[in-house]
Every structure is written in C-alpha cells, then in structure tokens.
C-alpha cells in the first residue's frame, strides 16, 4: 500500500504543478518557428497540458516529496498520463507533441522524451490523421539526418525508431521519405541506411519490392564511404538485408507481392560481396574488418547455392586466408571458410585444387601454432578448423593425407600432435562415412610416427587407435595397433614404478600416457573381436605383476569384457568340450544363471609366452635418432626385451587360482582407489569363478552381486572401511567353507603370506592382508604346516614397525579362533629359540636389515598373548588364561626394563585378557588366579608416574586395566577398593591442566580424567550403599577442600560424576544415614562460591543431585518451583559478579533448608564450621552465609540442638582469622540466643576463664544491641540470684538450662563486661536496684564458706594453671558495682563512696557489714526513685535460706528504717 500512496501523492503534486504551469503560460505566450504551419483549431487545452507534463519530465532537479516519490516516478507518471490521454484522442495528442517538437531551442532530452511517447502512441490501437503522420515523418526524417554529434546521435536514434514504428501502419509514407534521400552515387546519411534495415527487419514482405533497388543504390555508395563508421553501418545493414531475404525465401507462400527468386537476390548481392572482400576486408580498422567478416556469412547463405556464383566465391578464398595473419579474430574467418567448404561437399563442387595447399597450410598452422594472446575464441576456432578438415577429407582425401604425411616428416612435437589430432577427427567423422581408402591413408601417416617417444605424440597415437576401434575399423589395428598399445602399457608402467623424485614433471606426463593407454585398452577390449586370446594372458598377468595399482581398474574391466565376449561367442558344444578337457562336470544352468567361463586352450598355449611384451609378433620400434631423447632409455629397454624374447621364449604359467584370488581380495580392500577398482575386480571374479574355484562358483554368483550393490550404493566419502572389510572377510570365510577337506585354504594362506612384502606399511591393503591371513590360517587343517607359516611370519616381521607389529598381532589372534593350541605352540617355540639372545639388547640374528630391540619383541609377544585370549574360544580361554597366557605376559613384563612402550603393551594386554574373560557368558565360579599379581604390578606403575606432569598414557591405561580387573573374581575388599581409589586419585588430581595450544597433552589429560571416573565408578559399584558413598566422599574431601583451583575443580567434577551414578543406581532403595545428608551438603555448599566457574557449576549440580536423592528418600515435597529456582541460581553462578554469586548461594541454601530435619541441620553446620579456614576467604564467607541462612529459617525449631550447634561454632570460632567471618558466626550465636536464651546463656557461661578473645567478641556483640543486652543482664542476674533462693523444679527444657549450674565468677565477669560495654547513654536506671542488690548478695556470699563454687572447682581440676589474681569474686563484684555508680552521672555520690572507703570496707570480711550499711545509707539519700524497689528486694532477701543473704539484707533493711525514721 505504501507505493500506491506514494504514487497518488505524486499524481496530486503533478496536478498542482500543471495548474501553476498553466498560469505561467498565460503570461508567456508560446513562440513558434517561422515555418510552423498555422495553428490547429482550439484543441481544448491539450497542447498546454502536454507541455506542462513535458516540463515536469524535464525537471531533472525535481525534489523528492514527503512520500518518497522521486524524479523517476514523476517522469514515469507524466509519460503515462500523456499516453493514457492518447488512447481517447490519439491525433490530438500526437499533434500536440509534434508542435512541441517544433518549439525552437528545446533540449535533447525533451525531444527524446517526446519521441518515446510518440512511439508508445503509434503502437496503440487507433487511427492517426494522415496529415499528422506526414508532418511527423518529415520532422523525424529531418531530425535523424542532422549533424551527428554526441547529443545529436541520441536524437537521430530515437527519430529512426519512431520512423520504424510508423512503418508498421504507414509503410509507404516512411519508405517514400527514405527512398527520397537514398540516391545513386550520392552518399546518404548513415541513419537512412540504419532505418532502412529496421524497416526491412520489421516489414519483410512490404520491403521486398524495394530490396533490389536498395541494394543497387547502396552498392553505388561503397566507393564514397570512406569513414569507418559508415562502412560498419553498411555492413550491418547488408547483414540484416540478407537475413531478411532468407526469411522471405523460407516463407514465399505468405507473400502477396511479386515473387523474387533466390538467384535474383544473389545476383544483386554478389557485387557487394566482391567489394567487401576485395576492398573493405583489407581495411586496417579492426572494427570495419569485423563488420565485413560478420556480414559475409548471411551473404554466403544466398550466394553459395548459385552454381555460377559459387565458383566466383572460391576465387576469393585466398583473400580470406590472408586475414589469419592479421589482428582479426580467427574464429570468424574459420566460420566463413567452414561454410564455403561444407557447401562444396554438399553440392559436390570441390574448391579448386590449386588452392588446396594454401588452405591446408593456413588451417594447419592454426592448429599447431601457439595461439596469440588476443585471440579469445581459440577453442571454438579449433572446433571449426576440425570441421573444415573433415570437409576437405571428404573432397580431397588423398591430397589431405599427403599433406599430413609431409607435416609428420617434421620433427616438431606441436606439428605432429596437431596433425595426429586432425587425423583422429577425420577418422571419427562418420556422417557421411569415410571411405576405406581415406582410413588406410590415415593409418599410413600414423604408422610413420610410432617411433616418437614424446608423451604428447604417444597419447595422440593411442587416441587414434582407440578412435579407429570405436569407428568400426577394428581390422585395421589388429597388428600394429595392438602391438603399440602393448608397448605403451609396459613402458608407462615401468616408468611409473621406477620413477625418481627429481623428475616430477616426467611422472605427470607418464601418468597421462598411462591413463590414455588404459582408456584405449578398454575401448579395444569392448569393441574388437577376434583378439581375446591374444590379449588375455597379457592382461591377466599384468594384474599380478604391476605395482602401479591405478591401472588395475581398466585392466580388470578389459579382462571382464574379453571374458564376456568369449561367453557370448562360444557355443554350448565348445563349452562342454572345454569342460571335459579339464576334467570337470558342468552343472545344468538355471534360468538367470551366468554361463561358466573356462580359460580356453588357446589362452593356455599363449601362457607359455613371456610376460613383458609377450604377444608381440614383431619388435617394437627402436628409438628414433631424429626425435628428442625424452624416454629413449625406457623405449630401448622395452625394445631389448623384445629382442631377447624373440630369441628364447621361457615358459610361464597362468597365476594359480589362489594367487589370483589373494591378489584381488587384498586390492579390493580399498575398493574406491583407481577409479573404483572394487566393482571391476568383483565382476572379474564372478566371470572367472569356474576357472578359479568351481566349488565356489554358485556361492559367488549369489554373494558378489551383493558386494557390488554395496559399493554402488556408497561413494568414497560415505562408505565404512570396517563394514566393507567385514563383508570381504565373510565372503572369504564362506568361500573357504566350500573347500573343506582340501588344502585350498592352506595354499591361499601361502599366497597371502607371500604378498605381505608387496605392500607398503602402513596401507589399508596390508592391514586387510594380515586380517585375511589370520582368518585363512584359522581354517587350515594341517596344524604342522600352519605352524611353519606362523613361525615364518614371526621371524620376518619388522617389530620396529608399529603397523607390521600390529598386523602380526591381529593375524595371530584371528588364527587362534580355530588354532589356539597351534598358536600357543608356535609362540612357545619362538620364545625358546630367542631365549639365548634375551641376555643381549638386540635380537637380530634372523633379520640383519631390521635388528629388534628386546623390549619391542617382548611387548609384541605380550600383546599377541592377549590377542589370542580375545579371539579364542571361551572354553579354551578358561583353560589357558592363567597359564600360559597371563603367566607369559607377566614374565615378559617382569624380565624387561619396563620402558613406556612396554608398560603400555602390558596394560593393553591386561585389558584384552580381562575383557575376554568378562565376555564369557557362563563364568560360573571362575577365579582369576593372577588378579592380585596383576593388581600389584599396576598399582606400582601408577605410583611411579609423576603427579605433576603427564607425558604418556600409561597411567590412563593402568586405571583402565584396574577397572577391568575389578569386575573379575575374586573381588577386591573394601580396604583394597579404598586403597586403589586413593592411589588413582592422587595420581591424577594434582596434574596441571594442559595449555590450550597443546592438543596432544589435552587428549592425554582428558583420557586420564575419564579413566579415573570409570575406575571410581567401577569400584564404587562393588559397595553401592551409604557407607561406600561416605568412603568415596572421604577420599575426595581433601581435594575438594584443596587450596589449588585445579584440584578443587577436578575433585568436584569427579564427585558430581560419582554422585550421579549413585543416585541413578540406588534411588530410594537404601536411605542415607542420619546426619550424612547434612554432612554431604555441608561439604559442597562453600564450593558454590568458588572463584572458578566450572567448580561452582559442578558443586551446584552435586547439591541438586543430593536434594533430589533426599527428596525421593524422604518423600518430601519438591515441586517445579524449586527446580526453577535452582536453575536460576545456577545461571547466576555462571557469571563473574561476586555479589550475584553469593546471592545465588544464599538462595540455594534457602531452597535446601526446607529439606533438612534438625539432625541434618546440626551435621550441616558442624561440617560448614569444620571447613572454615580450610580454603580461601570466599569459601569461608559462603560457609557462614549458609549457616546464617539456616539459622534464620530454622532457629525456632532447634531447641534440642542449640547446644550442639553452639558448641560447633564456639569450637571453631577461635581459629577464624577474618573479622567478617567471625562476625557472621557471632551473629548466628546471637540469633540462637534470641530464640533460645537460656540454653545459649548457660552454654556461654560454661566456657572456661579467663574469657578468651572469641567469647569476649560474642559478649561485645551482645552489648552492641542494648535491648538484647538488657535482656541478657536480667538472665545473668537470675543465674546469680538462683543461688540464694529455694531450688525450683524445671517445667520446661528452658527451665532445665536456666537452672543448670554455672560458674558465678564467669557470670560476674560477663555482667562486668556488659555493664562496661553497653552504650554509656543508657544509665541502666531501671536495672540499678536489681543489679546493686544482686551484686551485694554475691559479695556477701563470697565472705562465707560457700565462696568456692562447684563449677569453679571443676574448672580448676581441668585447667592446671591458676586464674589471674585480678579475677576473683570480690574484685569483679566490686568493680561491677563501681561501674554501675559511675553510670548514674552523680559525681558527688561516686566521690562520697570513695571518700568514705565503702569499697575498702566491702572487701574485708570483718568490715563487710559496716560497708554494706554505709553503702545502703548513701543510696537511700541519693536515689529516691529506687527506694521502693530496693525495699522489695531486701525483704525478699531476708527470707532466703542462705545466711549471708539474710545478714546482708537485714543490714540494708536497718539502714532503710533508720533513714525513714530520720
């Protein structure tokens, strides 16, 4: 909708501008030219509207309106408005536009706009006034003939287009105007000719009556056209005229005008052709040349069919050929020549013989010479030249071959290659079919180049031979062609297999030759008949001989083609005869079954020929002395081979069936090499099945198509190597089953063994070869001969080569599947033979080229034994696993220097043996006797590994070996389990994380961690209960609390892994022990604030697992909201913001808190307190955060557990160094005191004296909170007063703690501390009477025999030292009383007390009552507001059972009475 609104906005603006323009036009009347005809009658303002719209179109600087409509849209809308108006009034609008054209000094762009609008109006339906059309024709004609400048050319172009548009309905008017300006011998304007061409193209039939006169008139202008531009225009127009004539001739039946014949046109056209070729083609201007040459093709289409003119065209061929040496693009010249030559063949009028040599030479140079850089169409030009030579060969075959022969005589490689390429093209031309004479002449030319050893020439010859076979001239190559192909096959293979590294370019060239040779062989074998026997032996033996495996695919395809042709040509009788000759019985062929192929007798006779060039009947060409020496040595060698063969012919046999099968099977292990050799070889095997092994033929007929189907369904990028090898091995096993009872498998084993040294190490083929050999030997029936082959394999193996060593190990293991006793005997025999050499470090008596290190052989023997255990039958394994297999492994390891490689081999052997035992289904009560011996060796190896660095996978393999051993009987005890865990954890957990740029160490590190996880998991599975979990966590705890980040991270991740395994395995079956849940959570809670992100996340996951486990075991509520909250917390833990991390940890604590019972809360807090100080400050803060969170949420419920919690906090509080952490713990104590005052107070008062720093800090924190401190003072006074009142019975747990005995000295010290530290602004006036009375009673009791409290005695028994002298009941009491009086802000009272010696009197037992009386008297006088409360307390004290209390109270009462009476 936005473009629509934008357009409507533009229309509205156009209307406004048109109105403004109309107003302006009234002020400035239109000025017209002098020659303008009288104005038309009033047109209703159309002219003015058109003028206004044209003004809008001309306003190039029009501003963009708010809606976004720019100048382009305004211009388009103005044009559309004019055109739409013309649909209803075409003549009126056109006249208005014509008047606009006649306005003087209008811009070029305005005229272009007017002409474009006129063209649109002309194309509309509706008739135009004749007078207007005439005026428009005159104006446009004049416009296009004006001086052509830069802008004038644009005007002329649109004027010409306007005339062309008018010609569709007013052809006569336009044509009359143009013919009026086209006069003989008078060079017209170029746009007249251009417009004529447009008229001819748009009005073919109307223009034809004028065609003759137009061509004739143009011809008279040719001599006058000297400018290049004019010549190009004439050439282009002529090209258009010719194409128009051709269209006219093809549609004569549609013409209503007088018919002109093709000859008539040709006669009028030929003068132009002659002038173009003889004069203008020699012009130096390349654009003129290009215009002329392009116009010749349509001209020749009209000239060449004319017999008289054709010969004249031939006369000008040399002029065309001469242009090859100029700057003109050769392609255009060749296209014209091809047109002429092909027409000469079609009309059977060959070009003059005298021109042949020139044509041959010029075209041949184009093929052989180096293409100039400016030639852009060289490849297309070559295609056109080839077609020219094909046309020449059809007309002048003998002359052409004679020319080719003369060129071949030259020794230049480019000339020979070009000539041979042309010959191949001539041979391939089958439409119409080349005559035999031409082919014979071509072959004679080719034979003259057979001695050339340059690679491009050789490839060209091979391609010609292949083309001859494809074109049906098979008989022509049976002699020389097959010989040449054979020589090139031998020569290229020899060069590629004996190449030098410094001749890389030569190798590339030879590969190209070899590829072409293979393509030629494929063509010959698929198309040539009568030569199957000749090619059979050479190709079959080539498969067995060549080391250049890239050639195998085409050779196999060729052999299959030969075999298929034989199958189709041999009749049933010959097949029966052949079978009877070989002593075999033919089975009746079922429908759809392939006929059996038996190698014929002729082939067997040919097998007696030598292999290299064996079937050549004449010697290969000797090196040509005139050719460059490239490759002459190899050719000479092949030539000498042939000479030696011709003198004495040694006999060779066809490869044995087992040898051929072994070779093909091994090569098929890489089926996509060499252009997909796998399918080719499978097809060959299927074809030769009866010749290789008749007993396998039926099975191969079924299974080989399945293998082929697998390869066809995959590519080299999608196939799976192991899957394919498994299929081949299964195919081999099924095949060998068909030969049971014979020595077929043993002979195949020998052939496989013989091929081992034919393949490089490492390679897929050799790896499969070892595997196939193992399977084949396992099916051998003669054990003694199998032993010989195995022993030979042990001796000839290079044990320093990892690939060969592993291959032999696999071979022995696979052989043990069916020959376990034989394999063990061979190993024992081999060990005895090398025993004499074990004292030395080298065992190389049998392999001087590959001396063996002692450890290398021992490691190989250990792995061989373990591999035997992996593959042998289960029952045989149980018989031999302890002895000799495991015993031999231990012996070889113990008797060696135990380097890294040997350790790895030992661990690998142990794993293989234990896996093999574990895989046995019916183990029953099998006890692995060597288990503890192996365990001892492995643990010793782990302990030897450095704990700070990782340089080998030994420890990883050792832990994996322990994991496997743990699954076998006899099982490890719990103590042994824990020891293995501890050793393994210690070996791995301290390893430093590898650098990011060291991928190998990273891999070792990751593998070590994974192995540790698997070992811990396996050992924990043996005791999967809360006790086992606790033991595991206990082993990890010191690492979880480590000061090193890396150790904490690894330990936490390991804890997480094992916790997840425990939760998955146990679930709700076995509940955790009481307090265990809190201990586990308390261990991990501080780690949620760890400085390392991964440790935080792992800790969070551990806590989640614990909470899930606890919820499932206790059936507590655990809804999605809690899961969501934990997920949010985990997300916050991933960020670096410390505040967010602590906030998330606190939220986790809140979520977890509701899952805890009181006992678990105690164990949690105890664990958290234990962890304080173990790590860094961040962990300590996390611990106290969790403690504070739990106490805030659960303090009310912990009445029975307060003492335990307080004890745990007070025990660890002294060792807390950081003030903030201590402060948080103290706040926890205060929080407990807030809800459980008596319990906390009693626990605090039972702490020993002198009061330690942490305890002082607790009371100082109490003093900071004045209301709470006043409450605590009440409680403290109650504890002191309880000694002087009758003992009451406890009615609640709080009463029990309140009535519990405490040390009065500790209580006094606490009161003194609180009075001293409470805010000085608080006078404690309401507490003053009670405090003074309580302290006075305490002071009086210290004068009697009960002064020594039982608690104090107990404390003194526990603590050997004595209390400081200043810490005693009297002093602390008096000091406390002094502090109280100072708080009253009564300096006079304090001074009076000091002056009258009250404090001294109170300290002595003899003057104590005097001091009490004096103190009471002074208080009565100075403290009127507290007399009533003091009287109440004194009266209560007089009823006390304690004598000292009654005496003191009586003394105070006496003073009160005296004060009252006075």
Mind explaining what this structure looks like?
This protein has 1462 residues and is mostly helical. Helix content is 69%, strand content 0%. A two-stranded antiparallel ribbon has the order 1-2. Strand 1 (842-843) and strand 2 form a beta hairpin. The relative contact order is 0.02. Residues 1-12, 17-42, 61-69, 571-652, 838-851 and 1345-1358 have low confidence and may be disordered.
Relevant terms:
1462 residues; mainly alpha; two-stranded antiparallel ribbon; 68 helices; disordered N terminus
Distance between the termini: 112 Å
Total E-strand runs: 2
- Poorly predicted regions are 1-12, 17-42, 61-69, 571-652, 838-851, 1345-1358
Number of helices: 68
Main beta sheet: 2 strands, antiparallel
Helix content: 55-70%
Brief sketch in words of this structure:
With 1462 residues, the protein is mostly helical.
Task: Lay out the secondary structure.
Elements: H1 2-27, H2 46-58, H3 71-88, H4 90-101, H5 108-123, H6 130-144, H7 150-166, H8 171-180, H9 190-202, H10 204-221, H11 228-250, H12 262-278, H13 286-303, H14 307-315, H15 317-322, H16 330-346, H17 356-368, H18 378-395, H19 397-408, H20 413-428, H21 436-447, H22 455-470, H23 480-497, H24 504-527, H25 532-545, H26 552-569, H27 572-581, H28 601-606, H29 632-647, H30 657-668, H31 673-687, H32 689-692, H33 697-713, H34 721-737, H35 744-754, H36 764-778, H37 783-796, H38 802-834, E1 842-843, E2 852-853, H39 854-871, H40 874-894, H41 900-918, H42 931-944, H43 954-965, H44 974-988, H45 999-1021, H46 1026-1040, H47 1045-1066, H48 1076-1084, H49 1093-1114, H50 1120-1133, H51 1138-1153, H52 1158-1171, H53 1177-1194, H54 1202-1212, H55 1219-1235, H56 1237-1245, H57 1253-1264, H58 1266-1281, H59 1293-1299, H60 1304-1317, H61 1328-1341, H62 1350-1358, H63 1369-1383, H64 1387-1395, H65 1398-1403, H66 1408-1422, H67 1427-1438, H68 1443-1461
Antiparallel strand pairs: 1-2
């Amino acid at each position: 909708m936005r473009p629509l609104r934008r357009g409507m906005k533009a229309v509205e603006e156009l209307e406004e501008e048109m109105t403004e323009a109309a107003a302006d036009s009234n002020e400035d009347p239109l000025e017209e030219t002098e020659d303008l005809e009288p104005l038309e009658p009033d047109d209703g303002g159309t002219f003015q509207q058109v003028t206004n719209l044209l003004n809008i179109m001309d306003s190039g600087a029009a501003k963009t309106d708010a809606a976004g409509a720019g100048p382009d849209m305004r211009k388009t809308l103005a044009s559309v408005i004019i055109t739409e108006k013309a649909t209803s009034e075409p003549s009126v609008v056109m006249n208005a536009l014509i008047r606009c054209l006649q306005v003087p000094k209008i811009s070029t762009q305005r005229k272009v706009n007017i002409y474009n609008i006129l063209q649109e109006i002309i194309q509309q339906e509706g008739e135009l006034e004749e007078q207007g059309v005439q005026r428009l024709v005159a104006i446009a004609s004049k416009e296009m003939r004006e001086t052509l400048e830069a802008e004038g050319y644009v005007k002329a172009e649109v004027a010409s287009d306007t005339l062309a548009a008018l010609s569709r309905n007013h052809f006569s008017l336009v044509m009359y105007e143009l013919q009026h300006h086209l006069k003989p011998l008078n060079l017209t304007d170029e746009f007249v000719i251009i417009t004529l061409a447009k008229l001819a193209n748009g009005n073919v039939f109307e223009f034809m009556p004028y065609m003759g006169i137009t061509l004739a008139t143009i011809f008279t202008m040719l001599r006058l056209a000297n400018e290049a531009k004019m010549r190009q225009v004439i050439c282009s127009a002529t090209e258009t005229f010719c194409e128009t004539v051709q269209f006219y001739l093809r549609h004569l039946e549609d013409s209503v005008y007088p018919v002109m014949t093709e000859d008539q046109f040709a006669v009028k056209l030929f003068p132009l052709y002659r002038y173009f070729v003889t004069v203008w083609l020699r012009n130096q201007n390349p654009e003129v040349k290009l215009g002329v040459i392009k116009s010749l093709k349509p001209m020749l289409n009209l000239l060449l069919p004319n017999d008289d003119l054709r010969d004249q065209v031939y006369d000008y061929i040399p002029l065309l050929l001469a242009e090859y040496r100029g700057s003109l693009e050769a392609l255009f010249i060749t296209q014209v020549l091809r047109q002429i030559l092909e027409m000469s063949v079609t009309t059977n009028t060959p070009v003059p013989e005298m021109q042949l040599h020139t044509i041959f030479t010029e075209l041949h140079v184009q093929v052989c010479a180096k293409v100039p850089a400016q030639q852009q169409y060289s490849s297309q030009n070559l295609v056109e030249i080839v077609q020219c030579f094909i046309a020449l060969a059809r007309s002048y075959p003998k002359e052409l071959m004679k020319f080719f022969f003369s060129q071949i005589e030259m020794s230049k490689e480019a000339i020979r290659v070009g000539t041979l390429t042309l010959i191949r093209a001539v041979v391939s031309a089958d439409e119409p079919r080349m005559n035999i004479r031409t082919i014979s002449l071509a072959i004679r030319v080719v034979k003259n180049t057979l001695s050339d050893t340059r690679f491009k020439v050789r490839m060209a010859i091979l391609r010609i031979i292949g083309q001859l076979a494809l074109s049906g001239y098979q008989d022509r190559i049976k002699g020389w062609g097959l010989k040449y192909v054979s020589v090139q096959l031998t020569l290229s293979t020899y060069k590629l297999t004996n190449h030098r590294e410094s001749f890389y370019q030569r190798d590339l060239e030879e590969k190209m030759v070899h590829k072409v040779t293979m393509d030629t062989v494929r063509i010959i074998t698929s198309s040539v008949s009568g030569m199957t026997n000749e090619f059979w032996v050479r190709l079959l033996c080539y498969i067995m001989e060549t080391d250049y495996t890239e050639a195998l695919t085409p050779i196999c395809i060729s052999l299959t083609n030969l075999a298929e042709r034989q199958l189709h040509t041999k009749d049933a009788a010959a097949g029966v005869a052949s079978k009877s000759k070989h002593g075999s019985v033919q089975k009746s062929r079922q429908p759809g079954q392939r006929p059996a192929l038996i190698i014929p007798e002729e082939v067997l006779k040919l097998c007696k020929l030598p292999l290299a060039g064996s079937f050549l009947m004449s010697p290969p060409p000797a090196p040509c002395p005139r050719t460059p020496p490239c490759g002459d040595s190899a050719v000479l060698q092949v030539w000498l081979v042939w000479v030696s063969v011709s003198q004495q012919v040694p006999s060779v046999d066809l490869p044995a069936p087992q040898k051929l099968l072994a070779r093909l099977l091994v090569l098929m292990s890489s089926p996509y090499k060499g252009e997909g050799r796998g399918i080719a070889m499978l097809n060959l095997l299927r074809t030769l099945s009866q010749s290789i092994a008749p007993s396998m033929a039926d099975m191969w007929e079924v299974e080989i198509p399945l293998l082929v189907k697998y390869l066809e369904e995959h590519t080299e990028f999608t196939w799976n190597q192991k899957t394919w090898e498994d299929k081949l091995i299964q195919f081999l096993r099924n095949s060998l089953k068909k030969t049971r009872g014979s020595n077929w498998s043993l002979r195949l084993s020998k052939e496989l063994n013989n091929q081992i040294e034919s393949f490089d190490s490492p390679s897929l083929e050799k790896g499969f070869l070892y595997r196939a050999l193992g399977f084949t030997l396992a099916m051998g029936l003669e054990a003694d001969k199998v032993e010989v082959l195995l022993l030979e394999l042990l001796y000839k193996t290079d044990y320093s080569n990892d690939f060969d060593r592993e291959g032999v190990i696999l071979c022995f293991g696979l052989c043990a599947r069916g020959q376990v006793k034989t394999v063990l005997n061979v190993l024992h025999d081999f060990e005895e033979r090398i025993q004499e050499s074990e004292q030395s470090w080298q065992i190389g008596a049998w392999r001087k080229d590959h001396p063996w290190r002692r450890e290398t052989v021992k490691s190989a023997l250990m792995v061989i034994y373990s591999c035997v255990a992996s593959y042998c039958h289960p029952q045989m394994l149980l018989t031999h696993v302890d002895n000799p297999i495991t015993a031999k492994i231990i012996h070889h390891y113990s008797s060696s220097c135990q380097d890294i490689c040997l350790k790895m081999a030992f661990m690998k052997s142990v794993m293989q043996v234990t896996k093999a035992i574990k895989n046995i289904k019916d183990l029953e009560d099998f006890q692995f006797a060597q288990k503890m011996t192996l365990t001892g060796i492995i643990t010793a190896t782990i302990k030897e590994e450095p704990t700070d660095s990782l340089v080998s996978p030994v420890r990883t393999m050792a832990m994996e070996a322990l994991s496997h051993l743990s699954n076998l009987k006899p099982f490890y005890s719990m103590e042994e389990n824990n020891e293995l865990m501890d050793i393994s954890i210690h070996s791995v957990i301290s390893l430093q994380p590898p650098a990011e740029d060291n991928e190998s160490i990273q891999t070792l590190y990751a593998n070590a961690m994974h192995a540790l996880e698997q070992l811990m998991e396996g050992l924990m599975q043996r005791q999967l209960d809360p006790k086992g979990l606790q033991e595991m966590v206990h082993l990890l705890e010191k690492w979880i609390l480590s000061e090193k980040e890396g150790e904490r991270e690894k330990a936490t991740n390991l804890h997480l892994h094992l916790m997840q395994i425990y939760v998955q395995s146990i679930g709700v079956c076995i509940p955790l022990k009481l307090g265990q849940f809190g201990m586990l959570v308390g261990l991990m809670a501080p780690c949620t604030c760890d400085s390392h992100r991964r440790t935080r996340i792992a800790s969070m996951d551990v806590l989640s697992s614990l909470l899930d486990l606890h919820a499932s075991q206790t059936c507590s509520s655990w809804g999605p909201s809690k899961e969501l909250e934990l997920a949010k917390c985990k997300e916050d833990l991933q960020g670096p913001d410390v505040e967010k991390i602590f906030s998330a940890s606190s939220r986790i604590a809140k979520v977890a808190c509701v899952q805890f019972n009181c006992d678990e809360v105690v164990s949690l807090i105890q664990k958290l307190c234990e962890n304080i100080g173990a790590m860094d400050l961040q962990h300590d803060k996390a611990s106290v955060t969790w403690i504070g969170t739990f106490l805030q949420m659960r303090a009310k419920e912990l009445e029975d557990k307060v003492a335990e919690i307080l004890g745990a906090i007070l025990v660890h509080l002294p060792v807390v160094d950081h003030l903030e952490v201590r402060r948080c713990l103290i706040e926890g104590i205060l929080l407990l005191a807030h809800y459980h005052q008596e319990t906390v107070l009693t626990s605090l008062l039972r702490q020993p004296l002198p009061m330690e720093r942490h305890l002082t800090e607790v009371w100082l924190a109490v003093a900071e909170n004045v209301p709470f401190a006043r409450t605590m003072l009440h409680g403290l006074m109650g504890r002191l007063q309880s000694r002087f009142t009758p003992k009451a019975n406890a009615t609640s747990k709080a009463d029990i703690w309140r009535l519990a005995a405490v040390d009065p000295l500790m209580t006094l010290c606490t009161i003194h501390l609180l009075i001293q530290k409470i805010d000085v602004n608080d006078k404690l006036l309401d507490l003053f009477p009670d405090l003074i009375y309580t302290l006075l009673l305490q002071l009086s009791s210290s004068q009697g025999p009960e002064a020594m409290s039982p608690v104090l005695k107990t404390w003194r028994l526990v603590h050997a030292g004595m209390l400081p002298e200043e810490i005693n009941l009297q002093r602390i009491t008096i000091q406390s009383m002094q502090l109280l009086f100072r708080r009253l802000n009564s300096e006079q009272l304090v001074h009076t007390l000091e002056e009258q010696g009250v404090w001294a009197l109170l300290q002595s037992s003899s003057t104590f009552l005097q001091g009490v009386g004096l103190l009471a008297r002074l208080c009565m006088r100075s403290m009127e507001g507290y007399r009533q409360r003091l009287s109440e307390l004194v009266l209560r004290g007089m009823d006390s059972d304690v004598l000292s209390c009654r005496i003191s109270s009586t003394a105070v009462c006496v003073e009160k009475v005296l004060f009252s009476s006075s």
